[in-house]
Predict the 3D structure of the following.
Amino acid sequence: AAIVIACTILLMYELRVVERLELLTVDYRFLLRRPEPVKADIVFIDMAEDSIDAIGRWPWPRKWHAALTRILSEYDPKAVAFDVVFAEPQDEVNDATFEEALKLAQNVYLPLSYELRGRTGDKVYEGEGVQSIIRPMERFSQWSAGTGHISAVPDSDGILRRIFPIISSGDTETYQLGFRLACDALGIRESDVILDPKGHNITLRSAKGKDIKIPLDDNNEMIINWKSRWGKELPHYSFIDIIRSYGMIKEGQKPIVDLGLLKDKICIVGLTALGLIDIKPVPIESTYPAVGVNAMVAASLLNNDFVRTTNSLANILIILAVSVFFTFLLSELRPLSGMAVAAFGIIGYFLLSSAIFGIFGLLVITFYPMLAIFLSYIITAAYTQVLQTVERSRLFKQATRDGLTSLYNVRHFNLLLEAEMKSASFDKNRRLSIMMFDIDNFKKLNDTYGH
């Protein structure tokens, strides 16, 4: 039974039959983990509803982005990253103004976007998965401090849990935007980024002597370490408030935002107004602005704080161990006791995996072992019930039938006869006949064949 259960669960695991339920346990583990703010010099500059009301409908004239870029450059942020692909030209005045601001700032990162067909299942995301690339205009990208992609593919249930840290297309490799920001902030060059597809990790060789090893899953993707809900993970500042505050400072007034707080910060600028942004459901929230992915990825690298997963071999061993242990345990128990043990086992395993994730940041395979416990109970309970039924039938036969002839014995015959007599007494139209035989020389049969 243990072998049958283990093989059944392993087959389901290989075919990903209930993968969505496994992913659901991942979300619950994120939700059960204690939320905490991200400890990194990263801030959001939100292009939210208040900025839309003040500036007008999106897309905005690029003079506004130029103004923000010039203001930020005066307060020495470590980097400014736009989560907007400036791929199409506007008018010459706006484009030239923004270009000049980028040229003067020298620390602005501009993203590109891959249109992805989906996951290839390969060890490295190959170019055949890329349908097209949306790039920023050349007049802008030539003055940018760097570029990174802002593309991500949700899991089969539509929830965004992981990203491609590197996408290769043709002869070029593009880092994810948050990945790029963190590498540059840490002083890590491209030659110091070592991808190990077989080992499922990326090593960042640091000049300071302490390398950073980024764990990847079996598809060589990075699990995003979601810390807190949107608005509670990092400081947020309004796009329009920063511009207004700069004007107030020039006029000698107290600003809305203390722009000095932006010094040495990584400023990520993105749309957050509802209806205008790429909203993603994530494990900790059903509506999360996609711009936040960049900050979560960058913070993981800066803090060396990653989510790890058990590999396929470990998952197989866990499923085997749980299947064998609970099958033997439950086979020794009565069905009712087995039900209680199985329920405690399922709940206990989930709580254990949640504790491991909360303490060590390790995502242990969860739903498939829980399913193995449930299946162990069902099969052992069914097997026990069948055995009990067969045993009851055997005992009943021994108690009511003659061992030699298999006819009912006298005791059981009397019970049947009594039942018939009672039935006949209530039914006046029913007749009951009893035939009795006196067989001559029957003693010879008994002496020959037994009584």
User: Anything to note?
Assistant: The radius of gyration is 36 Å. The first strand starts at residue 42 and ends at 47. The chain has a mean pLDDT of 90. The chain is about 45% helix and 15% strand.
